[in-house]
Amino acid sequence: xxxxxxxxxxxxxxxxxxxxxxxxxxxxxxxxxxxxxxxxxxxxxxxxxxxxxxxxxxxxxxxxxxxxxxxxxxxxxxxxxxxxxxxxxxxxxxxxxxxxxxxxxxxxxxxxxxxxxxxxxxxxxxxxxxxxxxxxxxxxxxxxxxxxxxxxxxxxxxxxxxxxxxxxxxxxxxxxxxxxxxxxxxxxxxxxxxxxxxxxxxxxxxxxxxxxxxxxxxxxxxx
Length: 223
Fold this sequence. Notes:
The protein is of the alpha/beta class.
């Protein structure tokens, strides 16, 4: 089985996904170039945001058709303000309009991070202090308690330009309580296996983070 990943982000996701894949599929090897695939390999390519990821997905389909060694094309992108279903419709329509069809030996999957990758990170209950010190974090929790409620359903506070910006800010405030700084280019803490396990625990014990569960269910189906 060979996997071809296209990720919307060019910072956090390209660092994070190889770690997560390895935790579930330790026998798989990452390759640097798509034509290096042999058996149980995965290739990761950054789509460079929306809408450029749509064109890169079309090009990936062409590449896979020309080199039919891949079994899964997995496209991971943010739902942001338009939502999961609308985002999937957008990219499917773009592929349809291109006239390109993926060969029947490869299956395409769309994993939409609802709202953004930081939304998933908010699913780790263990990292949230029971008695936060920061005023801003206390205000965030009063607005929406991500320990008890599904982070994917959290609406933004009025001062923030969109949901993704708010979810990102919320996560940074949680880490500040531990004297940690989160940067998209250095997402060290969320790359740790213990962090991934806490997110798994959340989806196994609740119905929260359904889009994260979609990803890990897909990965575990390949073991």
